[in-house]
From TrEMBL:
Source species taxonomy: Eukaryota, Metazoa, Ecdysozoa, Tardigrada, Eutardigrada
Localization annotation: Membrane
Protein's UniProt name: Claudin
Gene3D superfamilies: 1.20.140.150
Species: Ramazzottius varieornatus (Water bear)
Annotated transmembrane regions: 130-153, 165-184, 218-241
Keyword Transmembrane carried by entry: yes
Protein encoded by which gene: RvY_07862-1
Amino acid sequence: MTTAAILLSLATICGCIAVACVAIAFATDCWLEYDVNRIAILNTINQQSTALNPATLDFANVAREMNRSNIYFDRTYGLWRQCFPSEIPYGTNVYLSPTDTSCVNIDYPKDLDSDLDGYERARIHLMRTIIALFIAAFAVELLCFLVGVFGCWKRSPALLITTGTFMLTAWLLDAGALAIWHGVDYMETHQMNRRPYYLAWPLLLQQNTVRMYSWSFILAWIGCGFALLCAIFIFAGAGSLRYERRKEKERHAQYVMPVYGAYAEKQPPYYAPGAHAYSGPYYYYNTNTYRY
């Protein structure tokens, strides 16, 4: 039982880490991070304000939007909220998130406006799908936990294989959600040419903005990897438990005496001479010998 116990213990640890990491990533708001160098933008505008060139009009528009549009501020994005760690755009109604950050909710409307293009519609539907896949993964992991506890208690390889199948399904759901999120991220940066997405930004803003994946995104992938490890350890533990049970049966089978039932039924019972004689050896107490 040593190997199976070790494998199932590792599976339990990996499963707990997987659920914790994905749950934290799902609830927090640091999937994407934008760092905007506002000082560099203002300095460029001040230097070019007196120059007569075609870019002057673009700089004037940037100056008007600098304090009102959220794309000119440092911000982070999650699945639910957009947060501003430092300055807040003028006129934006914000609230404090559980991490004490000023945030606004990301809206996924049920009724889509007619002026939305195909990419925007697809993006909203895909973001809903991501959230649904994560919720389904949490439900499957809960079922996996319940079946796994019962399977370990009963020491049943069949129940443990079922548990591993559930965890593998949860891993596929998490991986599918993350893959779709990457697809949405590609659409926002390479295909969608309207505000507030990257292709519609002024060139000055693009040059002074750093975009990066943040720790919530990394946690989500770490949790996905541990979910796969958990499934592998569960399958390995079930196989080890099945192997140990088979070896135990083979070891006990060596001490089982054969019963020749057919031969015994054909032989009549043996009775010694005399009505109540004892068929075994009898002793003479006055001597040191015995007879059969």
